[in-house]
Amino acid sequence: MSWKTPAPRHMAEASCFRSVVKVHCEGAAPCYTLPWQIEEQDAWTGSGFFVSVENGEALVLTNAHVVENAFLVRISGQRDASKRKAKVVCVAPDLDLALLRVLDARGEASQPLRLAGELPELFSSVHALGFPEGGNTICVTKGVVSRVDAQLYAHMQSKGFSSLTAGAPGKLLILQIDAAINAGNSGGPAMAPGGEVIGVASSGLDRAQNIGYIVPACLAILFIREFARTATWGGTCELGFAFRTMESEALRDYVGVRGDVGVLLTSIAPFGPMRDHLARGDVLLAVDGATVNSDGTVAMARKSSEEGANVQLPLDHCFTSKPRGTLMELSILRSGTQQKARVPSGTVCPLLPRYGGVDAFPSFAIFGGLVFTRLSMPLFHELTTSEDGLGLAKSSMILSEVQRWQQTEDQEVVILLRVLRHAVNEGIDANDDLRVVTQVNDAPVLSLAALVQLAMRRISDYHGGEASSRFLRFGFRTDARNGVSDVSSEEVLALPGLLEADAEILAQNGVPAPVSADLREVYAAAAPRSIPLVSAWLGCLRSLGGRCAGGARKRSREGALVPEDA
Prior knowledge:
Layout: H1 11-16, E1 20-27, E2 42-52, E3 58-62, H2 64-67, E4 70-77, E5 84-92, E6 97-102, E7 125-130, E8 139-151, H3 154-157, E9 172-177, E10 189-191, E11 197-204, E12 212-216, H4 217-230, E13 241-245, H5 249-255, E14 263-268, E15 283-287, E16 290-291, E17 297-300, E18 311-314, H6 317-320, E19 327-334, E20 337-344, E21 365-367, E22 370-374, H7 377-384, H8 390-395, H9 399-402, E23 414-419, E24 435-440, E25 443-444, H10 448-463, E26 471-476, E27 480-481, E28 484-485, E29 490-494, H11 498-509, H12 520-526, H13 532-544
Antiparallel strand pairs: 1-2, 1-4, 2-3, 3-6, 4-5, 5-6, 7-8, 7-10, 8-9, 9-12, 10-11, 11-12, 13-14, 14-15, 15-16, 15-19, 17-18, 19-20, 21-22, 22-23, 23-24, 24-25, 24-26, 26-29, 27-28
Helix pairs in contact: 10-12
């Protein structure tokens, strides 16, 4: 019995099959609550397709969540079942996009697909291509573009971001289609009948039928162009302010707004693009001439005569769809006077590292069994989704940190993550973890590196006979409820025997060194090298590599990620 494949209606459809690939991944997720461990290894697949970069190179475009935490990435095609090695060269977690470079020249050359620069019309036909679970051959589903919207992408929501998160990227343009997008389809192209890619398959709704979401091709073009220019991705542009809607007529009358327009700015990010142009209490009336409605939406004009072409979208999309540095004209009402400001679009430097493997890593430092780390969104997400439910209750102590802007340059939130039990820390309540560290022996703690430096200096001074005290003290921000502090503001460790106790604690818990590899240099600079235990730990850290797992990339003042060699 033979099987005959129906001929595609368009030559564009036939040729594009060779450009769509299956992405094979193997890897393991890091563990932020036990930062010296990783989760169990796993294997999974997704989809992708070849696109052309401005220098003429053909790369594979896929979803960020497809290659997240992958140690090994390979691709295969419809006509070539052999798996070719590929390397992740750039990731845009906020867009849920990633670029892969194929390292193995074997296999059939693939023609890059063309990306559409404009959003498609509503109700226009769309074909979703990919390699969903349940088979090894390419799958094509057909539907229409059923909605244009702006949302916080599902990939970000799955990482704990929400409207309450100060560091959340803004809402981005998204297309809803009724062509099926199933597990394994992620990263594949969604194509118009003429052969142009209108979007990248990203997610579907498990609780609904025939609702799939694709990342518009216009945003993929932003990503690819920036990679071609800088070899990195600095993030989508962000609002840089928080606001409340003004649907209350009384509120509009109070601030002097005429009509059902405007939103009230409640805070401005100190390290964001709007810091020198907007102020708390301003009313934002329009963006680039488009009126901001009192419910926080802006009409997006479409080049179409179709019914419903102009849709009301969250005002975020006016910012997030622009390249960084684009001049925007904002119309504001300040103290009763209407003003205009020309502001360059840009990113916000977040208080908490946001993206695992990009700017957030499971770093740690252990002193007397007290495990310290920097608070990040991946850690916060692990805490709030822990199976025992304790993380959610404990995370309420640090919820306020998730909702704050960064106030000073290079500011980090350092917390006591857990207590590894030992006689050296007897009497320190393990239930009092997740406290924010503020001081080491009265010196302010501005970062995890600063905590390591301060603690190691105290230990070195003690072993060198220069210490004025034989105690190591950690100060914490108090958590007061009903006006009464129910958490100790300070914990004290005795310096005599502390290093020996740490050696026992590390051995009991299978931890190779008292700090993560990214903190090796700061640890070594202040450590008493003459002590054999310390020398052994330094040797272990050197073998792990100075930029292992914890090597976070720097950010510019505006929040854009800086290349490694910057």
